[in-house]
């Protein structure tokens, strides 16, 4: 079982960006793929966020659906801006199952400065490869969303995100930190532009299984849910692993904690 994560530079226009990304996926993603992950604003060009033309959206979704079907993989489409009936722009990300059907969808508001807002829905999907959480945009960098998904059983987080080009070292450390403190695998996809610093990676609690840095292309890493399950096993004497102490929680205390600070 293998995870593929795409990281590409933005071209002169959305059509050129989409062609470069989708052609690379078609040539690089093998039949061993279990998951394919694209970034936030996967086909956007420049730093000004605009809705993708409908024909381009449909063409991108069609090709990603074909990729899911032909590889038998789950594909996180990344996100792209879509215009709602009220005229507002929203980021939309979809998780496609191996049949090409949408098994999870996330929408987030686009803020006045062009960045993506946060939300309060954090889907977890049961797959033949384990339970998978899907995150979009800045939700990944907050404490609660990854924790909520892991408490719901997620063993792998698929993240359509982005890294600030000026803060890559700190955010790289945060990707690994989130994997460690939640005892979860993280497949993080980011894009390359003047504003976005790449940083795509597959992180395990023990360290990075693959990193793109600022290189364009597609990285891959093996995936074994049994390893995460092992690290989460109760081991109060810490003879086998140290991670259980980070994963273990008494969730019945949460209401008391929130009551104390309200």
TrEMBL record:
Domain (CN hydrolase): residue spans on this chain: 1-236
Keyword Hydrolase: yes
InterPro entries hit by this protein: C-N_Hydrolase, C-N_Hydrolase_sf
Protein origin, superkingdom: Bacteria
Keywords: Hydrolase
One MF annotation (Gene Ontology) recorded for this entry: hydrolase activity
Stored Gene3D superfamilies: Carbon-nitrogen hydrolase
Family membership noted in the UniProt record: Belongs to the carbon-nitrogen hydrolase superfamily. NIT1/NIT2 family.
Protein name: Carbon-nitrogen hydrolase family protein
Organism the protein comes from: Streptomyces spinosisporus
């Amino acid at each position: 079982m293998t995870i593929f994560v795409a990281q590409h530079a933005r071209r002169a226009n959305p059509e050129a960006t989409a062609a470069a990304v989708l052609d690379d996926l078609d040539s690089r993603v093998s039949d061993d793929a279990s998951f394919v992950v694209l970034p936030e604003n996967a086909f956007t060009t420049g730093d000004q966020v605009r809705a993708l033309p409908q024909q381009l959206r449909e063409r991108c979704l069609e090709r990603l659906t074909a990729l899911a079907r032909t590889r038998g993989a789950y594909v996180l489409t990344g996100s792209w801006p879509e215009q709602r009936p009220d005229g507002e722009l929203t980021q939309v990300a979809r998780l496609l199952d191996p049949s090409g059907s949408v098994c999870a969808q996330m929408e987030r508001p686009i803020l006045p400065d062009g960045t993506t807002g946060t939300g309060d829905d954090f889907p977890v999907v049961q797959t033949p490869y384990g339970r998978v959480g899907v995150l979009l945009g800045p939700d990944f960098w907050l404490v609660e969303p990854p924790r909520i998904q892991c408490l719901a059983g997620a063993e792998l987080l698929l993240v359509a995100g982005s890294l600030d080009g000026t803060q890559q070292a700190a955010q790289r450390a945060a990707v690994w930190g989130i994997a460690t403190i939640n005892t979860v695998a993280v497949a993080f996809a980011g894009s390359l532009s003047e504003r976005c610093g790449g940083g795509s990676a597959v992180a395990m609690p023990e360290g990075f299984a693959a990193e793109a840095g600022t290189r364009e292309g597609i990285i891959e890493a093996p995936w074994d849910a049994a390893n995460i399950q092992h690290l989460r096993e109760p081991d109060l004497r810490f003879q086998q692993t140290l991670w259980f102490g980070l994963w273990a929680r008494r969730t019945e205390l949460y209401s008391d904690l929130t009551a104390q600070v309200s």
